[in-house]
Fold:
Amino acid sequence: MRAVVAAALGAAFEAGVSLGFGPGGLEGAVLAASLGVLIAVLAGAFGGLWAGLVVAAAGWSLHFFLVSDQSWRDIVALAAWVAAGAAAGWLSDRLRFRSTEYEILGERNGALRHATHDAVIALDSDRTISAWSDGAERIYGYTAVETQGRNFAELLAPADAEEATLAVLETLGRGDGIADLDVLHLRKDGAIRTVRLAATPVREESGSVGGAIVVATDITALVVSRQRTAELEARYQSLAQQLPGATYVHAVEGRNEFAYISPQVGTLLGYRAEDWLTDPGLFFRLVHEEDRARVQSELELALEAGKPFVSEYRMLSRNGNIVWIRDEATTLRGQNGEARCVQGYLHDISAEQEARVERERLRASERAAVSDARDRQLKLDLLAKASLALTGSVDANAGLRRAAELLAEGFAAWCVIDLIDDKGATARAVAARGEADPVLGAPLSEPEPAAIEVMETGEATLSQARICAPIGARGRIVGAITVVAGTNGRPYGPDDLTFAEHLALLAGLVVDNARLHQQVQEGADAAHVLTYVADGVFLVDRGGTIRLWNPTMEAITGFDAHTMVGAQAADVIPEWQTLADRIPVGGAEPVHPETVPLETDYGERWVSVSGVEFFDGTVYALRDLTETRRLEQLKAEFVATASHELRTPLAAVYGAAQTLRRHDFALDESGRERFVSLIVDESERLGRIVNDILLANQLDVGNVELRTELFDPGDLVERVVEAARAHAPSTIAIDIAAGPQPPPVASDRDRVRQVLVNLVENAVKYSPDGGRVEVGAVPAERMVRFFVRDEGLGIPEEEQGRIFDKFYRLDPHMSAGIGGTGLGLYICNELVRRMGGRIWVESNGERGSTFSFVIPPGESSSGRPRLQEVFDSSGG
Structure:
């Protein structure tokens, strides 16, 4: 477009000049020619070579035909005209091409500076920074504005590494280039970075160095990575060299070429590591030819399956020796799972293999020795088992049967045992058979003639198929044992006969022991009865020495049998002479025993004793009647107490009734009411006493029926306290103890009330000096606890275990003026026990006691806790 416009304008100007100096116009052909040449030069300068040529040709033509006189000078001027236009156009094209190249080069340089991650730095001749790329800003942290005009070395070189940067600048100043030089540079934030420099000096037209272009690459991460790699490599080399075996690395494709192998391989096989690395195929040449195909196959299978390779094989060392190798290798994979290489370990196991061969040899020898001694060991095992079977039971038949079965399993096809009884008759005691034998069949039920002959002569018989040995005991023959090998068994020999004789000897001991045991058992039954009889039995010989003192005598008297047996009765039994005169002794006729007191380690005991005299001495039988006597005493005391307790209200009722019947004096209404109230109160007291006696009797025979109903323990306590307050003396205060609200109780409400009333009355009765009585009900573990606490006389600790006994009274002689039948606490204990609870008493220090009893709360029968479980959980 530029050339067309220049050609058109130039041609137009040329036409204007030629017309202006043409016919009838201005004169001056030289001036017109000069203007035409100038226009051609300008057209060429603006439009290029072709525009200059076209305008020059058009201008000469117009000038030749319109202005000049068409002489030969004008024809020569054509060449000058065209040369001027062409020269101007050519120069214009060259200048324009160079300018375009410079622009493209500048754009490329700018794009390169902005796109590269490396630092591109332009330096002036005075070493100041004139250009700073984006990569330089990323590496050093400075912006281009911050670096303009600053000295390169002062800005980037740290103080301790400035010499290296200055050496670079000096080299550039001499006009030499720099390639791949690693130096330390300083970032804006003070961090030291390792950079690799490449620099080229920029020369001026005169040839002098006018500046330089420096390219810096940040290789800090590369340097750190190389350091770590070197450290890891050093560690690996140290580990590989310390291992007793040789480590190796080879390509995944196979073991023809190794990438690395540790120096230990030289010690292992005699070939240096360099031999393995430079000699492809050395590995398989060294593998023993008998193992080579197997190793190659195992390697291929491990590679295909992606599993570790583990194998043991032989290799040939340089000196020709065979070395057993354990080879373990695994494939190392990259992050994406691709196989990178194979790393493994070669270990010399020649010593281990030799030990293994030696073990196999020893095992073979052992098997041979075991095979040689198998029969003997079998006999010993059978003898041990048979001995255990024979001696493990006092039943001779059972022991002989088990021993015969053992022999029939491992030593013979048959085993029969014949015995001679006490009358001299022979009988087959045991017949045991092992595996079925179609030829021999079953053994006979009676002894064979050969066995009878052995029992008569006492001499054993031996053949290849049969052994018969006599069974002896204490110098006499008691039977015979016969074993038969059968058609499939091995023939018997002298060792087998010795084995059979040993077994027959054991069988004789067993038979004799069984017979002795039977005799001893018959005599021991009497001693057994004496040991476990409920009566005490002791024997005093005619010299007065104790010969027998059974365990019951120990329990009754506390005298140990070891002390008593062998001692004189007069020395160890208190007042024996007096007792011996009182004890009735009989013979064939029984005598009535006498009850006498006996001093023992437990105190005085009342015993019923009698004796039977025989030729070796006198046997005394003794029965402990202490508790029976105590119960009789308690009954007697109860009768006396009950009589007294009944007499008092009866006397009061009788006296009041007699008074009311008298006519010799008149009673007013209040007096009559007082006597009637007395009769009612004493009648109620009399009724309570009679009811207690009847209830105690019902409890003894089990005729008390209990009902179950759900009730509130707190409400029951309040009613009992209100009733007790109405009859309590003024000196006694009865209160309800504070505490947590107990759950409802499912039990016999009337019986619980009766127990609580008895305990409250008991607390009032045993508080003659007055005081306070507290009644309460609280939850206790999984039970409900009722308690009555008083400040009365209290109960001695040694008496607390007996106060719930029948007829027991703490003050039996009523020395403190406190009455009672001794049945109240017994009735309480029995009622609480039948309701699934427990009752106990605790002292309150110096004065008073606390009676407590627990019963289950209101739950179903299946969910009610057992009393023993509750006591276990609470530690009681």
